[in-house]
Batch of 3 targets.
Target 1
Amino acid sequence: MARLRFHIRYPEEKIPEPILYEIGQEYQVVPSIRRADVRETTGWMDVEFTGEADEIDKAIQGLRTKGCIVDPIELNVVE
Amino acid sequence: MTKKMQSLVCRECGKEYPTQDIHVCELCFGPLEVKYDYTAIKQVMTKEKILSGPPSLWRYADLLPVEGTNYVGLHAGYTPLVHAKNLGHFLGLDHLYIKNDCVNHPTLSFKDRVVAVAMTRARELGFETVACASTGNLANSVSAHAASAGMACYVFIPGDLEAAKVLGNLIYKPNVVEIEGNYDDVNRLCSEIAGERRWAFVNINIRPYYAEGSKTLAFETVEQLGWRAPDQVVVPMASGSLLTKIWKGLKEFEKIGLVDSVPTKVNGAQAEGCSPIATAHLNGRDFFKPVKPKTIAKSLAIGNPADGYYALKATAETQGAMDMVTDEEIVESIKLLAQTEGIFAETAGGVTIGVLQKLVKKGHIKRNDVTVAYITGNGLKTQEAVVDAVGRPFRIQPHLSHFTKTFGIEEQA
C-alpha cells in the first residue's frame, strides 16, 4: 500500500460538488484531509491518499478530469 | 558551539520535530521551519564577533541552521550594498541602496546563499548526493557547490531549456537529467524522486535549512547600513520564500539586540506574466490563485508558489505593498539600473527596479526613506532578454577622421 500526499485546488464552479467523496467511491483509495480552506470563490485541500500506487495514479487523473489542479504537497519545486 | 537549533516546527500547527531531513508536518502537512534558541544565541552573537568573522555569509553562522564549521560554499554572501545615488536621483530618493547579489559567489546569484547553507546541513546529516529541480540559477549553484564539496549531484531540468543554461550546469559535470514533458511533469517527477531516494534535494527535503540562507541578505543589509534596519525593502518574489526570510532575518536581529527596532515595510515585486502573489495583494486577498507563467523573468516564474501565503502575511504585517511590471518594463528597468549604477541585473532585477519605480510613483516609498532593493542575479545570465533593446555599436573605418566625424568632435592638433 502506498501513501501519497497532494495539494488539490478546486475551480470555483466545482466548490459545491463532493468531488473527494466521488473519488473515494470511483477508485480504491482512501483520502484523508489534513488541511483545507474552502471559500465561495476558491478552495484547496492537502490530502493523503492511501491505496495501491496505480489506483492512486488513476484517482489523481480522475481529479484532473473533474477540473481540479493537483500538485505535490510541496507545490512548485522547480526553481 | 551553542546548541542553537532547537527543532523543526510546523508553521501551521506548531508541532515540533527533530532537526532531520524532513520538510512537511506529518500531522497537517504544513511546511516546517527551524526553531532557534534565541536566548542562547544572544549570549554569543555580538557585533564584535560578526565584524571579526569571515567576509561571507558564515559570519552569521550563529543564526544559521548548521551545527559545525565544516562549511560548503566558503565565499557566498557579503556582497556589496551600493548607495545608488544616480538611480536615487532619477527616482527622487535620497537614500536608495542596491543589495548587489549579481556578484555573489560562486555562480552570480543569491541562490549561492541558500545552497551553501543547504549543502552544509546536508553533509552534516550524512548525505552524499545532492539534487535539485531547476530552470536556471539554482541548478548552477547546486552543480558548482557539489563540485567543490566532492558530492554526487543530480540536476533535473525541463527538456526545452535554453542551451546556455544547460551549459552552465554541464561545465561542473553533475548528472544533468533532461525530462521530456512540461513544467508540471518535471515538478511531479522530482517530488516523487525526492520521496523515494535518500538524496538531499536542497529545495524539497532540505528546504527548512535551505530557505534560512536567505536571511543573510537581511543580516548583511543591517550591518552594512551601520546596524540599522531599512525603512523599505523591495524584494523579487518567485516562491515568496526570499521575502519572508528577509523579514524573519530583520526580526531575528531585533530579537537578539543587534538592531534597536525594525520599522521596515516589506514590499514584493513580480512580473505581470507570473504574479499570483502580487495579484492577490492588489485584490486585497489573503490567498492566491495559481497561474501558468508567461514572462521573460524566468527565475521568478513559479505559478503555484509554496510560500505565497506567508509572503502576503509578511507584507500585510509590515504595511508593505506589492506590485508587478510588464516584460517591456522589466527590460527598461534593467537598462535603467545598468545606465545609472553600472549594475547589469538579470530579469528578476528588472522586476525589482520596475516595481520600486511604481511604489515611488504611488507615494508608498518616500524621498527620505532608507530603501533597499534586492538584485538577485547577474545580467550575463539572461542576455537574450535585452539583446534587441540595447542598440548596436558604432561601426567605423579605421581612420581618425571617421571617428571624429561619427562623434562630431574635432581632431586634436
Target 2
Amino acid sequence: MGEKNKLPKRVLALGATSGIAEATLRLFAESGANLFLVGRNAAKLEAVRADLMARGAASADVYTVDLNDTAQHPALLEQAVQTLGAIDLALLAHGVLGDQEAAQADYAVAEVVLYTNFLSAVSLITWLANYFEKNHAGVLAVISSVAGDRGRKSNYVYGASKGALSIFLDGVRNRIDRSGVQVLTIKPGFVATPMTSHLPKGPLFAQPAQVAKGIVRAIERRSDVVYLPPFWELIMLIICSIPERIFKKLNL
Amino acid sequence: MASTKQLPLFESWGRYPRLQAAELAPIHWSTDFPRQSVAPAQLPVGLGRSYGDVCLLENGVLLETSGLDRFLAFDPSTGILRCEAGVSLAQILDFAVPRGFFLPVTPGTKFVTVGGAIANDIHGKNHHVAGSFGCHVRQLELVRSDGSSIICSPERNADWFRATVGGCGLTGLITWAEIQMRPIVSPRIDYEGIQFHGIDELIELFKSNSGIEYTVAWIDCVSTGANFARGIYMLGDHSDVPAPLVAGGKAKLNFPVDLPAVFLNRHTMRAFNEVYFHKQFGKRVKSLVHYEPFFYPLDAVLHWNRMYGKDGLLQFQCALPWEGGKEGMIELLRAITRSGLASFLAVLKAFGDIPSPGMLSFPMPGLMLALDFPIREGVSFKLLDNLASITREHGGRLYSAKDARMTAEQFQAFYPQWQEFSRYVDPGFDSAFWQRVTGRRPIDG
C-alpha cells in the first residue's frame, strides 16, 4: 500500500492523448498527482483532463501545441515547471506509426516519422535532462518501441526512429543517472491503442492498461529499460540473435 | 488497409446469427464520429453482450465504442456520474465502490457499456424498487450521423430521450451519459436463499418480499412431477454495516475452447439442476457475501458462452403481465420441460410497476422468465417459436436484446410504439435486428 506514495507527484505528459500515456496517467491521477498535459488536439486534451480529474488528480492543466514545432519547446517546458512548481516525472509519449510503404517510397514521408519520433523527442529530452541533472532528481520516462531493436522490412522507418531514440536515451542515462536521475526507456510491443486501431489484432496485442501498470512498476523499481509486456524481452532477444545472413531473408 | 478476410467476426453473446460486418470502426474520441466515409449503414456496438442480432449489421460499419472510456465528472456529494458511453459497468464499479457508490441498476454481467445499458434499457434484480437503467439516466448526448448533437433528458428533448433509451442504438451514437449512482457503506450483500416448489409458492415469495431491494429466482426447467418448477428464491440488500469498500476481483477463469455440443444433454442438465437445487442445504440459508458473486457469478468465467459449442446459443426472455401471467408462466415452463432442451440457468423475476422511460423498453409489471437453449437442428427454433406464441397469447412480450427469432409481426404486436419510434431512427443507422423486425431480413428455419 505504501508503494503508491513513492510515485512521482508532479507529472508532465508530452503526448498526453496517446493511448499508453492516457492509461498511465490514470494511475497517477488515482494517486492524487498534479498533472500537466500536452497535446495537439484541444478537444481530446479536454476529455483526458476531465477523466483524470474525476479519477482523483490533484490538478490537471492542459497545453495545446504541436510538438513537431521544436521552437515552442522551451516556452512549453518553462510553463510546465511554473504550473507544477517542479517536474518530478516527464513522460514522453508522442509519436507516429507512419505508413511504411509510403515512407519507403517517399523520403518526405519518412522525414516526418523521424522528425516526430526522434528529433522532437531529442529537443525535449535535451532540455529535460539538463533540468533534472541540475535538480539531482527526477524521472525521465520515454516511450520507445521493440521495433527499435532491429530493422525489419515491415516497419524500418518507424523502427529506425525508435532505435535512434533508444540509443540517445542510453547515452543520456550514462550521463545523468549518476546525478540521481532515472532515465527509463519503455519498449512496448503491440498495444491496442488509437495508433494501431487500423491493424488486425493478434494474440500478441496488449491492452494499454496492462502496459501502464508495467510503466508504473518500472518507475517504482527504478528500472533503466523495460519491455512491456515483459515477454517481449525474450522475443526481441531471439530476434536480435538471428544472424543477419539469415535474418535478411525472413519476412518480418 | 485490412482486407475483408482479415476482419474478425464481431459476435453477439449468443454467437447466433453470424453476420459479417464490412468494417469495425473503433471510436476512441467523440470527435471520431461522424466518420468521413460511411458505407451502406452503421451501428454502434459495445462489448457484445446482447445475445441475438441487436449488435450486428451485415455488410455495415460497426462503431466500436469501448474506446470511449472516460469519466467526465463525478460529484461525491450527489453521486452523479457523467461518463463516456463506452465505459463499462465493471469500470464504473472499480471507480465508484471505493468512493461509496454503487450502480443504480445492474444486469447479470458487468461487462456491458453504459451506451449498451441505455440502448437496451437493461434491468436488474431490483426492478421492482428501482425500475430499469434508463430511470437513472439524468441526461445524455446523442450524435446523429449528420453531425448534429442532441442533449436529451426526461425533461429536455424528451421524445429523443424516450426513443434512445431502449432504442437499440438506432437513434444515433450516444457519446456520454449522466447517471445517478446510489450510495453504499459496504460492498457486501445480506443474502438469503429460500428453496421453493412451484409457481404459487414463488409468487407468494415475491409478494411478501417486495421491500427487499434485490430479488430473483433460479428455477429448474428440467425436472418434472413433484419437482416441477422448483427452485431457489434469492434475496439481497446492500449491507448497512460499514465495511472496507473494496471493488470486485477480475475474472479468474477463461473458457478456452468451444465445448462439443454433446456435453450439453438431458442427463448432464438434469444432474446440474439437481446439484444446484441442493447446493443449499436446508430450506433457508442466510449469509453476507461480496456483491461480485451475488450479481456476477458468471463473470468469473470469461467466454462462458463457448460452453454451448461453436453453433452458439439462443436465449428466450419474456415478460408476462400479472393478469394471466401465472398461467402463462406455467404453460411456458411445461413446454420447456417437455422439450428437454433447457439448460443450466433459468431465471424468474417479478417486475415492478415503475414505468420504463423508453418507447421500446422491455419491462412491464408482472413476471419475467429468461433462459438459454443450445441450438439443436430442427427443435430449438420450433421451441422458441412456440414460446413466443405462448407469450403473445398471454399479453406479454420478448426482450429484443436477447432475441434472435421473433418475426416482424410478433415484434410489432409486442411493441406497438415501434412506428412512433421509427421516426427517430438515424437515416445512416441500421441493425440486423431492425432489418428483421421491420420485415427486411428473413428468419432461419
Target 3
Amino acid sequence: MGEALLVYLIVAAAAGWTAWTLVLRGWWARRAAAQRVADTAARGCGPDCSCGN
Amino acid sequence: MTPSATTAPGPMTPTGPAADALRVALVGNPNSGKTALFNALTGSRQKVANYAGVTVERKEGLVISPSGRRTVVLDLPGTYSLRARSPDEVVTRDAVLGHLAGEVPPDVVICVADATNLRLVLRLALELKAVGRPAVLALNMVDIAQRQGLDIDTDRLSAELGMPVIGTVATRRRGISELVTAVEARAEADAAADAETGRPQSGGHGWTEPSAAEIRHLHREAERILKACVRPPRRPDTWTGRMDDVLLHPVWGIAILLGILFVMFQAVFAGAKPVMDLITAGFDALSALVAQRLPEGLLRSLICEGIIAGVGSVVVFLPQILILFLFIILLEDVGYMARAAFLLDRIMGGAGLHGRAFIPLLSSFACAIPGIMATRVIDNRRDRLTTILVAPLMTCSARIPVYTLIISAFVPARQVLGGLSLQGLVFFGLYAAGMLSALAVAWAVRKVFWRSASEPFLMELPAYKVPDPANVLRNVALRGHIFLRRAGTTILSMMVLIWFLCTVPGKPAGAAGPAIDYSFAGVIGHAIGPLLAPIGFSWQMTVALIPGMAAREVAVGALGTVYAVSGGEESSRVLGASLAHQWSLASALAFLAWYVFAPQCASTLAVVKRETNSWRWPLIMFGYMTGLAYLAAFIVYRTAVAMGAG
Amino acid sequence: MSPVNSVPLPPTDRPSGPAVEGLVSLADGRRGLCGVIASVGAAPLASDAVLADELERRLLEMGFVEGARVEILHEGFIGRDPICVRLDDMRVALRRREARGVMVRTDPRP
C-alpha cells in the first residue's frame, strides 16, 4: 500500500535524522577535529614551539 | 582573483590559498565594540560555528575590500592580555600566535580599541607588536571620544606602536573602508618583506608568558605612549558615574535589579500573548486546510497530528524567546550586566559561586547550553564546574512552553495584589524556585566536593552606552533563527518519531480503549508508570517525559500527540483544556515541580560531557537532578493531595 | 595592615603632615578613599586557589599598577564587599580579598 510505505519512509528518515543530530554528528565532528589536530602535528612544529602540538 | 596584489611593491607571492583570500583576526578588550566592528565589516555574510574540538563560538565573516580582494575576518574572544586565563582566551592567544589546530594563521591582526579607554588596550597592542604579526589598530568609538573632547594624536600613536591607526565608528559604519584598505596595505607590505628576505617575518614561535615585571614594564610603556598621544577629555563622561550612584546603590541598586528581572518575566509572559495566539490560530488553520485536502488515513494523521500539531506547539513560543533575548542582549549592550554581577557577587559568593557566574547563569535562562558554554569566562576549574552543575536549574526557555501550558490550564487568569497577573506570579515563582535551588545546590557542591577560596572577582565596569538598535536586532534575530532551525530539524524529526510510537501498532479490530494503549508508547509508558505513580504521574505524562529528553519543549508536543491521538475527536480542542480535564491539580503541580529540576535535556548532558571532558560530571548532574525532581514532585503531590487537590 | 612583598616604595616629596595621610591597603579602604597606588604585591590569601603571583599579574593587567590613581566609588551591600573603584579613567569591580595586596598612599585631606 503506497500510503503506508510513504509514512514508513518518512518515519525512517526522521529516525535517521534524529540519530544523526543527537549522536553521530558529535562523533563525526570529534573525529574531524582529531584529524585536523593530527594534520597540524604532521605539518610539524619546531623544537622551540610552545603550541603543544 | 587578487588584482590588488599588483600594487604591492616588490615581487608577488602567489602561492597557496593565503595569496587568494586575506585572513584577518579581530583582537580587543572586552567591551571595546569588537563585535559591532565585526558586524560593520562583514554585514550579513557571517558564519557562526565552534572551533574544532572546543566549544568556543567561532564567528567568521567575509568582506570584499574596495580593491575587490576577498578578506576573511575572524572575531576572536575578547581578552586583556595574550596571557590566556580561560579557554576563550586560549583560543585568542593561539589564533594570534598561529598555533590553533585547524586554523590558518591570520595575515593581519586588527587590534580593536575603545578610543575613550585606551590604557589597557595599548598594552595589548604592545604585546601583539612583540609577537611580530602585522597589526592595525582600529580606534573604535571615535565619535564618543570627540564628543568628550578627547584629543588623540593618531600619527604619533601610529609611530609609537609601529602600526597604522584608523579611527572607526562601528555602529555608523564610519572608517570601515579605510580600515579594510589599511589592512590590505599592511598585508601586502608584509608579503613583500617576506619575499625580500625569503622567509616569513611574522610568527608566534618563541612567545612566552610575561612575568609581573614584564607586565609592569609594558604598562609603563603604554602609559608613556598614552601621555604622549592623548590629551585627557575636556568634557569627560559624567553620566556613567551618576547612573552608577543609583544603580550600584546598596538599596536602590538591588531594588532596580529585582525590578528589571520582574519586568522581564512579566513581559515574557504577558507581552508575547497576542502574537502567540496568532501563531496558534495559524497552525490550526494550516492543519484544517491539510485535513480537508487529504483522505482520512495514516498520512493525514502523520501530517496533522504529528507534524503540524507538534511543531506548532513549539514554534508558538518563539515570541517569548525573542523577548527574553531582547532583554538579555539590551542589558549586555547597555553595560548593565557587569553591574548586575557586582551587585550579586556577594549573594553568589555566599553560595560558593563567582560573581561572573551570573552571566552564564542568566544565559541559562535562555538555554543551559549557551550558559554552560559561557562558563568559560570563569577561569578557575572548580568555580566553573560548580556553575556548570547548577546552570540547568536556571529555568531555560525550553521550559517556558511546558510552564505556560500547565499554568494557563490550571491557574486561573485572575488579577491579584492590585493588578498583578496570578499566572505571571506563579511563573515568577517557578523561576525563583529554580534560582534558589541553584544557589542551594552550588553551596552543597562546595561543601561536598571541595572547600577552598574561590576565583578572584576582578572585572571592568564599562561606561554605559546607548545600544545600537541594528546590532541588538541582529543578535535577537540570530537567536530566533537558531531556535527555529532547531524546531525545523531536531524537533520536527522527534515529532514524527513520537507520532509513530503513539500510533503504531494500531488498535486491533474490536479492542476496547484508546488506540495509544496498544502502541509502543503505551507499552513504554505502562512499564515506567509504576515508578512515577507515587508522584502522581499518569502513564500519558510518563510517555511525554521520554521524548522530552531530546528537548524539554518536545514534551508539550508529545502531550499534544498523546492526548490528540488517544482522544480521537478531541484533537481539535485546545491541549490545555484537555489537560485541565484529564489531570488533577495535584498532578499538574507535581509535573511543574518535576520540570523545575528534572534533567530533561540530552543535549545539555552532552555539552557538559564535552565541556568537562569526562562522563563523571554529566552522570553526577543526571543523578542529582533526577533525585531532586522526584523528591520535589513527591512532596508537592502529597501536599496537594493532603490539601484536597488530588 | 598586612605584609606585602618588599617592593620599594616610590619616594614621596609630600610633607608627612596630617595624620590621615599614609599607606593603607585598598581592602581596608572605605567609600570615598582617594589616593595613588604605592605598591602592588601578592597578598597572603586564605588559600592558594590562585597563586599569589598569578593574582599580582591579574591586578597588573587590569591596571592596578604603581602610580595609578584610585578612588573607592561604591561598596557592595553585604559586608561592604565587593568594591567598585575608579582606576585612572576606568571603573573596576573587585573583592576586598583580592584588593588586599594593593597599597594606597592616601591623599591628604583638605
